[in-house]
Amino acid sequence: MTDDALAAVTAWWATAITRIQPGEIAFRGRPVQDLIGTTGFVDTIWLLVTGGDLEPARRRLLEATLVASVDHGPQAPSIASARMAATCGVGINSAMANGINVLGDTHGGAGQQCVALLGRMVREHREHGRDWDDLAADEIGRYRARGAFVPGFGHRFHPVDPRRNPLLSLVEQAAASGDVEGDHLRAGLAIERALASRGVPMNIDGISATVYGELGVEPELARGLFVLARSVGILAHAWEESSSGRRIKGPLPPPLLADYTGPDVPER
């Protein structure tokens, strides 16, 4: 093989993330043996994904957001899907994949969409100095014009999402101390004010989007971090269900059956 051909082969999966050699593993240039026991999991996530380090206040924000996102109970489709899969004889990895693959634009995508929304407001404010409340009114108007929900606000189950206040408090503290700029926070609160008359407060997706925006996380990567966090709950529920001894557990407990809405069946 020529040198050029060899170089083309080794460049095929070129990466700036992990260096692997016999007897060597390094993440972003840092030997794994130097990270083990000295670097927390959240810092390692950030290092691998972004190549950077987290200051203490920013680490606290990311860790709190990941903790807040780990689970929402067996009624969540991603969790229910994993639990059903676990009763069908698949391994834990397949049950987890089943749950993770349910996380799409509708169930699991609002955080990404909200990061994009807040980002648009922040850019418009910085470039043109527009008022936050005017920006919020414009954004809400666009969603209403197409009959869509404003992502990150309101919750089908919680009148007030119990994860909102503690995370909001942490972001406010970080903004007050200068650890984050605070513009995504201002944008999120402006949307919340505009929706207050409808009783639609910020939910976990909205406050998470605020954190991710303040940390400089791109919208799609924010969804990836949410999926990473929710994988913990998916694992826990799949493992619990796999230990129940129940086989082929469907969406309805027996002997209940789903309502039939098709044409009448002829009597025999």
UniProtKB/TrEMBL annotation:
Record-listed E.C. numbers: 2.3.3.16
Domain of life the protein comes from: Bacteria
Pfam families: Citrate_synt
Keyword Ligase carried by entry: no
CDD domains, alphabetized: CCL_ACL-C
The entry's keywords: Lyase, Transferase
GO MF terms held by the record: citryl-CoA lyase activity
Pathway the protein acts in: Carbohydrate metabolism; tricarboxylic acid cycle
Enzyme class, first EC level, given as a word: transferase
PANTHER family referenced in this protein's UniProt entry, alphabetically: CITRATE SYNTHASE (PTHR11739), CITRATE SYNTHASE, PEROXISOMAL (PTHR11739:SF4)
Family according to the record: Belongs to the citrate synthase family.
Classification via NCBIfam families: PRK06224.1-1
The protein's name: citrate synthase (unknown stereospecificity)
Organism: Microbacterium phycohabitans
